């Protein structure tokens, strides 16, 4: 028998507003580095984003659904995988339609990047002081079929202001940031609907999303280091 012990971590939902951006960025950074090595996490969700209570660093956990690319001749990054996994509430919208559910949609980096954004939205609107309270329109995401969850989240993108939903008191300062993220994905979904849509470059998309988050000097330095690791042109 073997016992495996891990360091105690805290849920990212326990962070205060001043620490959330840093911890969240560090989990995205971790994912980007893993993807560049051909490792796909497979389940970006609120329960899998943690914080080290000592270093205050964000930690990505639970690799039970992770997959590893096996392609030494081309790009090792699994941009053509079709093993769609994850927590429905946070999965990318186009992975919840009938085509994707039949595993005819390739798993892309931006799917997980979108999941990170849904997680951040969920934290800021549903968590207050570390406690989760579900209210309209977010409660419609739970216990739903993939298609109805997709519809409920499209409704959030299009009608969050009309629903008069506001971030919780703990994250009230993130209102403009969250609005920017929502509009980013609204515009992205609109572009996807066009006939001649092309998937955006992974690095550019990552830069665009991270550019919407608060940027401290520490985050700027970490991003510069990450970019040199994951950018094909920087290698």
TrEMBL record:
GO terms for molecular function: ATP binding; protein kinase activity. Coiled coil: none annotated. It holds the Pfam family Pkinase_fungal. PROSITE patterns: PROTEIN_KINASE_DOM. Residues 1-235 form the Protein kinase domain. InterPro entries: Kinase-like_dom_sf, Pkinase_fungal, Prot_kinase_dom. This is Protein kinase domain-containing protein. It comes from Cerrena zonata.
């Amino acid at each position: 028998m073997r016992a495996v012990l891990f360091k105690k971590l805290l849920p990212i939902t326990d962070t205060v507003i001043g620490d959330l951006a840093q911890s969240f960025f560090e989990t995205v950074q971790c994912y980007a580095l893993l993807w560049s090595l051909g490792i796909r996490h497979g389940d970006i969700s609120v329960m899998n984003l943690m914080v080290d209570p000592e270093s205050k660093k964000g930690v990505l956990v639970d690799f039970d659904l992770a997959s590893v690319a096996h392609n030494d001749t081309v790009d090792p990054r699994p941009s053509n995988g079709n093993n769609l996994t994850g927590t429905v509430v946070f999965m990318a919208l186009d992975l919840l339609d009938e085509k994707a559910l039949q595993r005819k949609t390739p798993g892309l980096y931006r799917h997980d990047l979108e999941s990170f954004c849904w997680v951040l939205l969920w934290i800021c609107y549903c968590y207050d002081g570390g406690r989760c309270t579900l209210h309209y329109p977010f409660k419609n995401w739970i216990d739903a079929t993939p298609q109805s969850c997709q519809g409920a989240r499209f409704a959030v993108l299009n009608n969050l202001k009309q629903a008069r939903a506001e971030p919780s008191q703990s994250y009230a300062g993130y209102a403009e940031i969250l609005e920017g993220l929502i509009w980013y994905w609204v515009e992205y979904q609109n572009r996807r609907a066009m006939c001649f849509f092309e998937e955006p470059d992974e690095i550019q998309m990552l830069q665009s999303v991270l550019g919407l988050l608060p940027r401290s000097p520490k985050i700027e330095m970490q991003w510069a280091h990450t970019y040199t690791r994951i950018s094909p042109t920087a290698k």
